[in-house]
């Protein structure tokens, strides 16, 4: 990283150490860097507290905080982290520091400039999110097997929509695809049974951190 990139600033909602609750790194001790702000308003959003507020920190300060924890797994999340332009040099700086970096992103913003060492966990917003119109379909062409695509499903209608996206865009040829139920809106078992009945080549997941800690901030 160019040394003066360490002076660039970001609005940071929180930095915390927990167990990764989703995707292929599930269960791994991980440091989370949650950036402030998001241009979307998903109906089922569970991190609305990150829309505003937070503390201005330099990239150097973030690296220092991250390095205090005994793991090299780092997840940059939000909000929508890519809404801050200095997210890109932050990701590169974390990679340069030897971290295994994942990025959780809404899929509404351009992912093409993300450092290729980063694993992008990208959402495809289903209709019940209220944000289906924000999906930036051009992002799909940039996904590789380092990345993962997550569809959060609130209803049978969302499920049918997700199945259609799998077919239309050959999503499982691009990267692993995750189907996740909206907590409190769709029974996890129901979604698992639909996937089994249809034999879909997707990974069913529930959010491990919510099983362990409920919807507690900083966990
Ligand atoms: S993109 Fe993520 S942070 Fe933004 S509203 Fe949707 S769920 Fe919440």
Automatic annotation (TrEMBL):
Homodimer. The keyword Ubl conjugation does not apply. HAMAP family: QueE. One of its GO terms (biological process) is tRNA queuosine(34) biosynthetic process. [4Fe-4S] cluster binds at residues 38, 42, 45. Transmembrane segments: none annotated. This is 7-carboxy-7-deazaguanine synthase. It catalyses: 6-carboxy-5,6,7,8-tetrahydropterin + H(+) = 7-carboxy-7-carbaguanine + NH4(+). One of its GO terms (molecular function) is carbon-nitrogen lyase activity. Substrate binds at residues 19-21, 34, 77. S-adenosyl-L-methionine binds at residues 44-46, 79. Its EC number is 4.3.99.3. It is an enzyme of class 4 (lyase). It comes from Oryzomicrobium terrae. Belongs to the radical SAM superfamily. 7-carboxy-7-deazaguanine synthase family. Residues 25-215 form the Radical SAM core domain. Catalyzes the complex heterocyclic radical-mediated conversion of 6-carboxy-5,6,7,8-tetrahydropterin (CPH4) to 7-carboxy-7-deazaguanine (CDG), a step common to the biosynthetic pathways of all 7-deazapurine-containing compounds. Keywords: 4Fe-4S, Iron, Iron-sulfur, Lyase, Magnesium, Metal-binding, Queuosine biosynthesis, S-adenosyl-L-methionine. Binds 1 S-adenosyl-L-methionine per subunit. Binds 1 [4Fe-4S] cluster. The cluster is coordinated with 3 cysteines and an exchangeable S-adenosyl-L-methionine. Its cofactor is Mg(2+); S-adenosyl-L-methionine; [4Fe-4S] cluster.
């Amino acid at each position: 990283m160019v040394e003066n990139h360490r002076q660039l600033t970001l609005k940071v909602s929180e930095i915390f150490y927990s167990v990764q609750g989703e995707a292929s790194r599930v269960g791994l001790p991980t440091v989370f860097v949650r950036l402030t702000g998001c241009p979307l308003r998903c109906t089922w959003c569970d991190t609305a507290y990150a829309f505003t507020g937070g503390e201005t920190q330099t990239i150097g300060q973030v690296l220092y905080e991250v390095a205090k924890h005994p793991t090299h797994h780092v997840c940059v999340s939000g909000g929508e982290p890519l809404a801050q332009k200095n997210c890109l040099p932050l990701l590169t700086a974390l990679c340069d520091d030897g971290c295994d970096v994942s990025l959780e992103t809404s899929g509404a913003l351009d992912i093409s400039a993300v450092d290729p060492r980063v694993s992008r966990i990208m959402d495809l917003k289903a209709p019940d999110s209220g944000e289906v119109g924000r999906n930036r379909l051009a992002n799909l062409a940039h996904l590789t097997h380092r990345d993962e695509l997550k569809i959060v499903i609130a209803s049978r209608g969302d499920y049918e929509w997700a199945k259609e996206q799998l077919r239309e865009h050959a999503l499982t040829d691009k990267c692993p695809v995750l189907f996740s139920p909206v907590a409190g809106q769709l029974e996890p078992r129901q979604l698992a049974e639909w996937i089994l009945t249809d034999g879909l080549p997707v990974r069913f997941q529930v959010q491990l951190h919510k099983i362990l800690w409920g919807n507690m901030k900083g966990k």
